[in-house]
């Protein structure tokens, strides 16, 4: 690969700002890399849409990133990964494409001592059993329970990530799994919980307060960043470092720039100025 190709940015897309948790992990692992992030906020959420619609949205988002020139694509959305990863790889064979499901599955298999794993995600991800399949490929004897948590995405997008509202909704979803009703003492509860949507890490405190201290919570962001680093290194695409050269980040959104900047800063952990965000049409 040429030095010019290595200098191209890493492209990421998500249905909204949740994928910024992946971007944050990439920044921490590879601070010299340039990033181009697209949040398709006009059509959020993806998780309640049909597979055909999700695949179409994913192709449109990828096309917008590819036309800006990228060296690698990260599908920073569990729903799009579970539905459209193969479609994107077929459509763009010259660009490496990495999703968030496989790295999350690998992390959960390492984290679970007893092989009892719970996965929370959007309706589409749970319906497609993407994590079930990925985990069982790695750990065939694992016992997996999946739970769709559709209200978590709007809660995260609104910034309502802790307190009584978030915790009561988390309890409604998670108590049947982690606090079975009396008389069910012999039910073995999971020892690992996979946050199968990139919006969900913002609700980690509320989730932790519901499930207790002993369950390992797996967030695929750091594992995905490791997979991206490995792929770039294998292809000779690591950005050449020169002194204090630090990577830049550009943001694209399909709706409401001020809202993207405001909410995105919560996910990224650093402020985003509205003039750093470009409004685009897919």
UniProtKB/TrEMBL annotation:
Single Gene Ontology BP annotation: peptidoglycan biosynthetic process
Binding site for substrate: 14-15, 46-47, 78-79, 198-199
Record's catalysed reaction(s): L-glutamate = D-glutamate
Pfam families per UniProt: Asp_Glu_race
Active site: 77 (proton donor/acceptor), 197 (proton donor/acceptor)
PROSITE patterns per UniProt: ASP_GLU_RACEMASE_1 (PS00923), ASP_GLU_RACEMASE_2 (PS00924)
Recorded metabolic or biological pathway in which this protein acts: Cell wall biogenesis; peptidoglycan biosynthesis
Keyword Isomerase: yes
Gene3D superfamilies referenced in this protein's UniProt entry, alphabetically: 3.40.50.1860
Enzyme class: isomerase
EC code: 5.1.1.3
HAMAP family from the UniProt entry: Glu_racemase (MF_00258)
Family according to the record: Belongs to the aspartate/glutamate racemases family.
Stated name of the protein: Glutamate racemase
